[in-house]
Amino acid sequence: MLCDSCKQNEAVVHRIVVINGQKNERHLCAKCAEAAGSVAFKLPSFAELMNVSFKSAEKEEEAACECGMTLSRFRESGLLGCPKCYEIFREELMPVIERSQGGRHQHMGTRPVMDAPALTELEKRREELRVAIEQEDYEQAARLRDAIRALEAKA
Question: What SS3 state is found at 77?
């Protein structure tokens, strides 16, 4: 795919942002991406992505964490100040977290979910590798290392 900007070089930077169902794509070569800098590729804040509508402005100013974070500052930056902010702003944050995690209350991560038997086999092999290294059995450690890589590739 050619660069959207210069239309000459192969695009190596691909940016796709979907906000409120509207998809925006840019494909740039390395040179044009570097020239565009962070301005063209500035990501929207977490709050902007989630299209957050917070409670009244009066409450925003009332609620403040001990680190000084307020809901209005969170809305601007999309970042919280400390772990305590999650407790202080729980009521306002839960709908945002649920929306970003597909209705779940817990962060699901970006790694693929491994099935339980593969995970226990992997953990078992890692422990065997640790023991083999402690016992300086490097041939066995090499076999275990290869087995671990195969299990990780399969998962």
Answer: helix
